[in-house]
Specification:
4 strands; alpha+beta; 2 helices; four-stranded antiparallel β-sheet; 92 residues
Length: 92
């Protein structure tokens, strides 16, 4: 077996993994304060999500919340509940 064949067999395959999605109005750039970034993070203690929004001001740090997989069902339920309770104001 040649050295090149041996190296190919011992190499681990690479994967392409999406770790960040950006949600924003179609007309806005990704640095817009209307853009929300959802990022998969792992700091050696297990994966979790970070949700971040820019402030629109260079001097203000982006606002971030972290969500563990275990808390997501309850958090999603709370968000869905509160979204359903939003009162829409009539047009003036």
């Amino acid at each position: 077996m040649s050295e090149s064949s041996s190296n190919q067999q011992s190499e681990k395959p690479y994967i392409i993994r999406t770790t960040r999605l950006s949600v924003l109005p179609a007309s806005e750039p990704i640095f817009s304060e209307k853009c929300t970034h959802v990022t998969l993070v792992d700091n050696s203690a297990g994966e979790y999500l970070e949700i971040e929004q820019q402030s629109g001001c260079v001097d203000v740090k982006p606002q971030t919340i972290s969500i563990d997989p275990e808390e997501w069902p309850a958090l999603r339920h709370a968000i869905d509940t509160m979204m359903g309770d939003i009162k829409v104001l009539p047009d003036a």
